[in-house]
Amino acid sequence: MTQFRPCIDLHNGQVKQIVGGTLSDDGAGLKENFVADASATEFAQLYRGDSLTGGHVIQLGPGNREAALSSLAAWPGGLQLGGAVTIGNAAEWIEAGASQVIVTSWLFDQDGTFRMDRLKELSQEVGKEQLVVDLSCRRTDKGWTVAMNRWQTLTNIEITKDSLDSMAEYCSEYLIHAADVEGLCGGVDLELVTMLGDWAGIPMTYAGGVGSMHDVLAVDAHSSGKVDITVGSALDIFGGDGVSYRDLVNWNQR
Questions:
Q1: Which one of 54, 142, 186, 216 is at 20 to 30 Å from 232 when CA atoms are compared?
Q2: At what angle do helices 65-74 and 40-49 cross, to 10 degrees?
Q3: How many domains does the chain have?
Q4: What domain range includes position 174?
Q5: Would you state the pLDDT for residue 183?
Q6: What is the per-residue DSSP string for 55-110?
Q7: Is 2 inside a domain boundary?
Q8: d(C-alpha 57, C-alpha 7), whole Å
Q9: Predicted TM-score (pTM) above 0.85
Q10: Could you tell me the CATH number of the domain that includes residue 160?
Q11: CA dist., res. 131 & res. 173, Å (int)
């Protein structure tokens, strides 16, 4: 059955909820839905107290290292870590307490060409079970195209059953943000969710567009319970009014 997985999105050292498509290198046009008074550590402690496993800490740009480390220290082995993960620092994040590292941009050249050799190398470095591949994507005329560099650069990889098959040999999970609906609370991409549920080769977490419990139920139904879900801006602990955090904790315990 579909499970709720929590998140801690870090921007400039603070826990935030951001409209995903507005992230850029220079910060121009950035739209913030929520900036937390609580620290990343406090959110990690909350999730630990409610036994929510499989959540992730994502560093959205520079300036987040200390906050990321503090959240991992608050729950060693309880959170995945993503954002600027490379072959050079992946093992360090595992040693700092991350259950797994999440990698995206490092798997591609600067022009967006996928490097299978890098995936194999990283998988060997940290172990398949400790590696999550982020296939966050945008809708294109081809279907769903993986995007890197804060979802601004389209790559040469489409999300298809073949591409999912080829990478699943070297990682334990996929994290898939639907970047076009991320942070908008306007509904999930059910076509994408359905395709992922039909494949279901390894565990997957979907993020993007959840506005209510109806969307959580829809992901469960359209994926046949095979795709987990992250809820961001709609969640009451992130200033939203569409989904109750406590309802999601109860959902996981049902």
A1: 142
A2: 20
A3: 1
A4: 7-252
A5: 73
A6: EEEEE-SSS-HHHHHHHHHHSTTSEEEESS--TTTHHHHHHTT-SSEEESGGGB-T
A7: no
A8: 6
A9: yes
A10: 3.20.20.70
A11: 7
